[in-house]
Structures are given as C-alpha cells and as structure tokens.
Amino acid sequence: MIQKLIEKYYSGETTSSEETLLRNYFLQEEIPEPLKSYQPLFIALSDLHDHKELFSIPNHFNTLHHRKNNVWKIAAAITGIAASLLLLFLLHQNLQPESWVMIEGHKMTTKTEIEQAIQQSFENVKINEDDFFFYTK
Fold first, then answer.
1. Are 29 and 43 in contact (CB under 8 A)?
2. Is the CB of residue 6 less than 8 Å from the CB of residue 22?
3. Residue 19: φ, ψ to 5°
4. Fewer beta carbons within 10 Å, N or C terminal of the chain?
C-alpha cells in the first residue's frame, strides 16, 4: 500500500490526506529496507509542513499587495483617459483657428462684417489737394 502511495505521489496524484499519511509513515523508526531510501525525503517534507508558516506569505499581505496594484492600475487608466481627452480638446482648438480683425475698437469675426468695415473706411477717406502726398503735373 505505501509503495502505491509513493508511486501516486511521484505522479502528482496524491491527496493532502495521502501525503500526510506518507509523512507520518516515514517518521517511524522501523521502515522496511526497500523503502528506507524515501525516508529522508518525507522527513524533510514533514519538517517543512510543520513549519510552513515560515515559508508562506500571510493572506493580509497578499490582499494589501493586490489592492495597491489595483489602485495603480485604476490611476494609470484614469490618467490615460484624462490625457487623451486633453489632447483631443487641444487638437480641436488648433484645427479651428479663429480669424478676427479689430476696427475702431470692435472685434469683427465674419468675412461680411470685415468687408463692410473696409468699404466704409474707403468711403470715409478724402483726399485734399493740400495733402503732401497728392501729386499733380
């Protein structure tokens, strides 16, 4: 029976209770000669099992570690989304440049307004013969 459990153990098919049975069996002092070669292995496994708390990470640490990882993942995702939205906003602003002209203290933004203001300005221009740039032959 023990030989079959050993074969099962090496195949990775033993249950936890079967492994406990193997460890306890090899803790005995009188073991048949053909099985003595397995004894050091199962004694070492028994010692490890008895002190497993020294080799395991406490659950509260694992939970805390996962929470910190999740916080960083969420923060990275939010930062990425915010950066993308800011980039889209800035690109939208730059793709639609605003053209305007200030005439007599008024900001004019439409082509029609500007053309009317220019036409009005030309109509208001008067040239006198006294102007120094007026040249006659």
1. no
2. yes
3. -65, -40
4. C
Mean residue pLDDT across the chain: 78
pLDDT band for position 128 (50/70/90)?
A: low
Return the half-sphere exposure (C-beta side, CA atoms, 13 A cut-off) of residue 38. Answer: 21
The pLDDT tens digits of the residues spanning 78-100 come to: 998 998 888 888 777 666 556 77
Domain boundaries, the chain: 2-54, 96-124
Q: What string of DSSP letters covers 8-41?
A: HHHTT---HHHHHHHHHHHTSS---GGGGGGHHH
Cβ neighbour number for residue 21 with a 10 Å cutoff: 15
Residue with tokens 């013969």: 129
